[in-house]
Design brief:
Elements (H helix, E strand, L loop, with lengths): L3 H8 L4 H8 L2 E3 L25 H10 L5 E6 L2 H4 L24 E2 L4 H6 L2 H15 L3 E6 L1 H6 L3 H12 L2 E5 L9 H15 L14 E7 L5 H12 L2 E7 L4 H4 L7 E4 L2 H15 L3 E3 L5 H15 L2 H29 L3 E6 L3 H11 L3 E7 L4 H5 L11 H4 L19 H10 L17 E3 L4 H11 L3 E4 L1 H8 L5 E3 L11 H17 L9 H4 L13
Parallel strand pairs: 2-3, 2-4, 4-5, 6-7, 6-8, 8-9, 10-11, 10-13, 11-12, 13-14
Antiparallel strand pairs: 1-12
Helix pairs in contact: 3-9, 6-8, 9-12, 13-14, 14-21
The structure holds FE-MO-S cluster (CFM).
FE-MO-S cluster binds next to helix 3 and helix 12.
Length: 534
């Protein structure tokens, strides 16, 4: 356990101003108090953070997984490297010639483009993309220099759209646009909402239980597990945003009767805007872990309130829980009593705690790289969040009810009744579910990582590639929860079983016995020899 005094000792290594700032980003959980945490502010220069940039959040996270869209990265080729599919967001298509995930398309700006402007080159790139791929949609994502030299990518997109009669949208997601990739999520959400969702001709769902899945990116095949489960239960999935998703589905996303929100951080803007514009409520779900998956399925069935669906859901949960619990018992025995750090970008820092708990593993430290206060404290704090120069940099899109397509999906009284029982249009955040004495850290940095690991000595550290090996060199296994260390899927019942197996392998791997962490070489107690008689 860490107390305020120990925390202070860790922070005392910082200059006074940095200490004051970092202190507001770290909490020791006291369940009987309303605790406030600072988040979504700039990382102090000089500190080694795990965060990415706005371009990563826009192109990499939200737009990149759309498989039938050619994503053009407008910038020098160094940024173009990240136009590759580096995030394990899998996608498959019936017509593989319309799946562009494997391609990397960049304008490869040169010095002359920086000096004289890059718009002409962007126009030529679009012509080439249409000529080679003939896609139904193109996106253009700007990297830093584009904003600095002032290329008007919006105007280029508009002209290309008129010229070719396809969707061409541009995103001013220059890396510096915000304090982290979170800014890029918001920029991408705005663009998709303004130009793509609602572009389709469909007026009605036409099928029972039609849903969209928001904030599921099909990392390691998670989305496929979820789709299979929901389809077996009788749901019709209109669109997934955006894992294995497509422009073709997305343009008709307005017809769904319910929007599921898996990752709140990256897509809550679209969820809220769809509610205002089309009257579609959203439900916060979490398909990580047996309990969370069962709970989410039950809430969905209750929303649709269909006796057959409710009964099918219960039968499915009973069958799958029994199957998985039997198979994972040996793993649970290995995991029982262990402790974990659970530090990921946004939602996963919260979601995986439930799965750890089911395996008998206690999360002693958790946090997010770039989430906002509502992801920690719950959406009720949104009105209290102060905007600053960085957040004002991202336009707030104003939407209003669509005169033709807005309709209540369920009667208003039923909506009120349901809000008492299920997470409709609400996310409670991470903190409320955390144990007394556990540590919550926003934008955990490498110095603090080393200090917290030294003191708490967790049995497993879960984070990403940027800190994985530092921690492993301390003799502690590290599980990447961004890309799953090339394993997965980890979603749903099947995924929980995969996770239990992989985590057990981390614990039973004998290699940790050969690593002596630095603190084992140092004496734990320090004493001084006093002169006789004193
Ligand atoms: Fe959402 Fe994500 Fe996450 Fe995220 Fe990400 Fe990711 Fe993530 Mo890496 S969208 S916030 S920007 S759940 S890429 S699939 S794992 S940091 S916790």
């Amino acid at each position: 356990m860490i107390d305020e005094k120990m925390l202070d000792e860790i922070l005392n290594q910082y200059p006074a101003k940095v200490k004051r700032s970092r202190k507001q980003h770290i909490l020791i959980r006291m369940p009987d108090q309303d605790q406030k945490i600072e988040a979504n502010t700039r990382t102090v220069p000089g500190i080694i953070t795990n965060r990415g940039c706005a371009f990563a959040g826009c192109k990499g996270v939200v737009l990149g997984p759309l498989k039938d869209v050619v994503n053009i990265v407008h910038g020098p080729i160094g940024c173009g490297y990240y136009a590759w599919l580096t995030r394990r967001n899998k996608g498959r298509s019936d017509d593989q010639t319309k799946n562009y995930l494997a391609y990397c398309v960049s304008t490869d700006m040169q010095e002359s483009d920086i000096v004289f402007g890059g718009e002409k080159k962007l126009v030529r790139t679009i012509d080439e993309v249409v000529d080679i791929f003939n896609p139904s949609a193109i996106t253009i994502s700007a990297t830093c220099p584009v904003g600095l030299i002032g290329d008007d990518i919006q105007a280029v997109a508009k002209r290309a759209e008129e010229k070719y009669g396809i969707s061409v949208t541009a995103y001013n997601c220059e890396g510096y646009k915000g304090v982290s990739q979170s800014a890029g999520h918001h920029i991408a959400n705005n663009g998709l909402m303004e130009h793509i969702i609602g572009r389709g001709d469909l007026e009605e769902a036409g099928q029972d239980f039609t849903i969209n899945i928001l904030g599921e990116y099909n990392i390691g095949g998670d989305g496929w597990v979820i789709n299979e489960m929901l389809e077996e239960l009788g749901y019709t999935i209109q669109a997934v945003m955006t894992g294995d998703g497509s422009f073709e589905q997305l343009k008709n996303a307005h017809i769904a009767d319910l929007n599921l929100v898996q990752c709140h951080r990256s897509i809550n803007y679209i969820a809220s805007m769809l509610e205002v514009k089309y009257g579609t409520p959203w439900l916060k779900v979490n398909f990580t872990g047996i309990r969370a998956t069962a709970n989410s399925l039950r809430q969905m069935a209750l929303y649709f309130n269909d006796p057959d669906l409710i009964q099918r859901t219960e039968a499915y949960i009973a069958r799958e829980t029994a199957r998985v619990e039997q198979l994972w018992e040996p793993y649970r025995r290995i995991c029982q009593g262990k402790t974990a750090f659970c530090y990921v970008g946004g939602s996963r820092g919260h979601h995986y705690q439930g799965l750890y708990d089911e395996l008998g593993i206690t999360t002693v430290l958790a946090g997010y790289e770039f989430a906002h206060r509502d992801d920690y404290e719950g959406r009720e704090v949104i009105p209290d969040i102060k905007s600053d120069a960085d957040s004002k940099n991202i336009p707030e899109l104003q939407v209003s009810p669509d005169p033709l397509r807005y309709r209540l999906k369920i009667p208003a009284e039923r909506m009120e009744e349901l809000r008492e029982k299920i997470s409709l249009n609400y996310y409670q955040g991470m903190i409320k579910e955390m144990n007394e004495g556990s540590i919550i850290v926003d934008d955990l940095n490498h110095y603090e990582t080393e200090e917290f690991v030294r003191i708490l000595q967790p049995d497993i550290f879960s984070s990403g590639i940027k800190d994985k090996y530092v921690v492993q060199k301390m003799g502690i296994p590290s599980k990447q929860l961004h890309n799953y260390d090339y394993s997965g899927p980890y979603a749903g019942f099947e995924g929980a079983l995969n996770f239990a197996r992989d985590i057990s392998m981390c614990f039973t791997n004998p290699s940790w016995n050969y690593i002596i962490p630095p603190w084992r070489k140092k004496p734990l107690l320090q004493g001084t020899v006093l002169k006789g008689g004193e």
